[in-house]
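Crash report, auto-generated. Payload:
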Amino acid sequence: KNEVEQSPQNLTAQEGEFITINCSYSVGISALHWLQQHPGGGIVSLFMLSSGKKKHGRLIATINIQEKHSSLHITASHPRDSAVYICAVSNTGNQFYFGTGTSLTVIP
Amino acid sequence: NAGVTQTPKFRVLKTGQSMTLLCAQDMNHEYMYWYRQDPGMGLRLIHYSVGEGTTAKGEVPDGYNVSRLKKQNFLLGLESAAPSQTSVYFCASSYPPTGPSYEQYFGPGTRLTVT
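Recovered output after restart:
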């Protein structure tokens, strides 16, 4: 049983394309997190959101609490966006649940 | 600020050997976590701590022990390593859920191979 499901698992895009990664979850949450893991292995937090929408540069994250669904969008994708994108959810019980990640490759 | 650091970055152990992974953070975070990451699986929580002197089990605690003697440090121990513990280990820290931000900050990871 996976509390967090992501789709697609793998994604290849041409530079400049608009990209969407989806995340669905099955548990009650206090927040949803989008993380980025680069080929070197380091993990950084991109967004934490509990409602609505957040934007940072070319990245946009949305969440629909009623549908238990979130999307991460990348506009005007670039090869440097190539990474694994991980969706995670947290609750007030100190638990984090992670998806298995979406591996994105952006081709020049 | 160094953020979250992990020592060592790489290690090879023989079955039955022991070792300790060190995690240090300089952000004054109350919460610290140890995860393992295996191919095809999401990060899985091994143990966590909500403050100095406290520890709690996560999803996959068997074969590991932890200690949080100082607020800034969180140690993960393997008493008798097994090949199934071959993995990449990540430490993370955060404020409490009621704090200014529940965002987790991750260390660079430790790649452990048990032969």
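Post-recovery validation: The CA atoms of residues 70 and 103 of chain B lie 21 Å apart.
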